[in-house]
Amino acid sequence: MHTLRPLLLAVIIIIAIFAGGCMSSAPSSPVSPASSQPADQGASSTAPHGAFTIRAASLTPGSVLPDVYTCKGASESPEVSWEGVPAATKSLALILDDPDAPGGRFTHWLVFNIPPDSRELPRAQPNAKVLTNGAQQGQNSGGSRGYYPPCPPIGTTHRYVFRLYAIDMDITQPTADRESIDWALTDHTIAKTEFVTTFKR
After folding, report:
1. What are the helix and strand counts (H, E) for the chain?
2. Rounded to 5 degrees, what angle do the CA atoms 27, 32, 35 make?
3. Region 20-25: what's the mean pLDDT?
4. Which of 163, 169, 170, 168 is nearest to 195 (CA)?
5. What is the pLDDT of residues 145-192, one digit of tens each?
6. Residue 18: helix, strand or coil by DSSP?
7. Contact status, residue 129 vs residue 139, Cβ threshold 8 Å
8. Sign of the C-alpha dihedral, residues 107, 78, 131, 114?
9. Distance of alpha carbon 72 from alpha carbon 199, whole angstroms
């Protein structure tokens, strides 16, 4: 009996050691190292370089046309500038209209065959058929050539939309009105951009 106790004690110790080894938690999977890629910062908040854009005078979109460009002032045409003209452009066409006119859309200004390498129409253009840069002016809805100043009914606010078209040809109409310009733009417009202003008399 006394000889069995040491043997029994040894067996118990061996069993305990073995059980402890089996019950120990397996080593956990190694933690993946932090990604070396930079965090997603999202899309750029700035407008893409080279975008086709137009601007009237020093105004911001949706702002009010100063009186000098309307029937309340000197009735001068505003400076219009642009950038990002597509490479395939053969000529540009500018249309200014009032979509809120009582009788329907009223076209205030038509300028076509603007050279594609130009970047602006300076302020106070004459009502000439051909401008100094070679561009031509068409007939507005008032029946005259050149710029027709905004002059909405008293007490109403109208939108005045400057649209610039990049087209793949020169327009050949000798005297163009809105209908003929719209026809010429059909299937020949490469890109279009617009700038909206308002005016109340």
Report:
1. 2, 8
2. 170
3. 41
4. 163
5. 999 999 999 999 999 999 999 999 999 877 699 999 999 999 999 999
6. helix
7. no
8. negative
9. 10
Nearest to 78 by CA among 94, 92, 93: 94
41 in Cβ contact with 120 (< 8 Å): no
- What is the rounded CA–CA span in Å between residue 201 and residue 191? 33
User: At a CB cut-off of 8 Å and minimum separation 6, what does 185 contact?
Assistant: 93, 165, 167
Q: Which residue has the higher pLDDT, 200 or 8?
A: 200
Alpha-carbon span 191 to 168, nearest angstrom? 10
Choose among 83, 101, 94, 82: nearest CA to 150.
101
Buried b / exposed e along 32-47 (16+ C-beta atoms within 10 A): eeeeeeeeeeeeeeee
What is the percentage of the chain residues whose pLDDT exceeds 90? 73
What's the pTM? Answer: 0.75
CA-to-CA separations, 181 to 4, 48, 130, in angstroms, rounded: 115, 30, 16
Cβ-based neighbour number of residue 117 at 10 Å: 9
117's CB contacts (< 8 A; 6+ apart) are 85
- Nearest-CA neighbor of 57 among 5, 125, 146? 125
Q: Which of 165, 168, 76, 148 is nearest to 106 (CA)?
A: 148
Read off the pLDDT of each residue in 26-49 and give the average, rounded to a whole number: 37
